[in-house]
Specification:
- By secondary structure, the chain is an alpha/beta fold.
- It has one domain: Rossmann fold.
- It has a five-stranded parallel sheet with strand order 2-6-1-7-8, with helices on both faces. It has a three-stranded antiparallel sheet with strand order 3-4-5.
- A hairpin with a 2-residue loop joins strand 4 and strand 5.
- The protein is globular and about 55 Å long.
- Bound molecules: 2'-deoxycytidine-5'-monophosphate (DC).
- Belongs to the cytidylate kinase family. Type 1 subfamily.
Amino acid sequence: MKKPVIAIDGFSSTGKSSISKIIAEKLGIVHLDTGALYRGITWFALQNCLNEDQTINLEQLFDSFSLIELEFKNDNGELVLFLNHINISKEIRSNEVSDNVSLIAKQKEVRDFLLQSQRNLAEKGGIIMDGRDIGTVVLPNADFKFFLTASIEERTKRRYQELLSLGIEADEKQVKQNLVARDKIDSEREIAPLKRAEDAIVIDNTMLTKKETIESILTHLKN
Ligand code: DC
C-alpha cells in the first residue's frame, strides 16, 4: 500500500517541524522541513550576495542558484541541512537568518527554484512536509492536510526557548517582533502566501502539549 503524503502548514513556531519529525518516525516515512530550505538560501545570500550596505542583492542571488546545493543528511538519526557539503543546521536558526528569510521566501525566483524538488520528493508517497504553502501549492493533492496555529504569546515563548536551547542569544521582545513581522510578510505575499488550504484540518495548539498535538494528528490519520 502506498504510504501517505501529509502536508503540515501554519504559523511560525507552532511546532510544525518537531511534530512532523516525530510523526515521520512513528509512521516510518520521510520528513521534509521546507522552512530549512528557505533558511539555507537566506544563509547562502548573507554569505555571498550582499550589497555594500549589507542588504541582500537579490539579482546576484538569482544568478547564483546554480552554485547552491542543499541536501539533508542523516546525522545520528537527525536530519541536518548541508549547503555545498557544509553543515549549516545551526547557522540557519540564527537571528540574522530569521530576520531576512521572509524577504527571500517571497521572491518568485526562489519559490520556483525550490518547487519542483519538493514535489519530486513526494512523488512516491511516504512523506510529511511542513511549511507555509504545502497544502495549497506544493502538494495540493496531499492525502492529509493540517494547519497549525497558536497564540503569539505561546509561540514567542516556544521560539525563545528553542533559541536558548541552541545556545543562541535571544531577547524575548525581539523574538516576538520577528514572529509578528514574518507572519505578516508570509501571509501577505503575492506568491504562495501562508494560508489554510480549504480542506486542511485546523489545530490550535496554544493549550496543547507537543504530545497532545501529535496525538490529535495521529487520530485524524487513522480516520
Ligand atoms: O518554518 P520556518 O520558520 O523555519 O520557516 C522560515 C521562513 O521560510 C518562514 O518565515 C517563511 C518561509 N517558508 C515559506 O515561505 N514557505 C515554506 N513552505 C516554508 C517556509
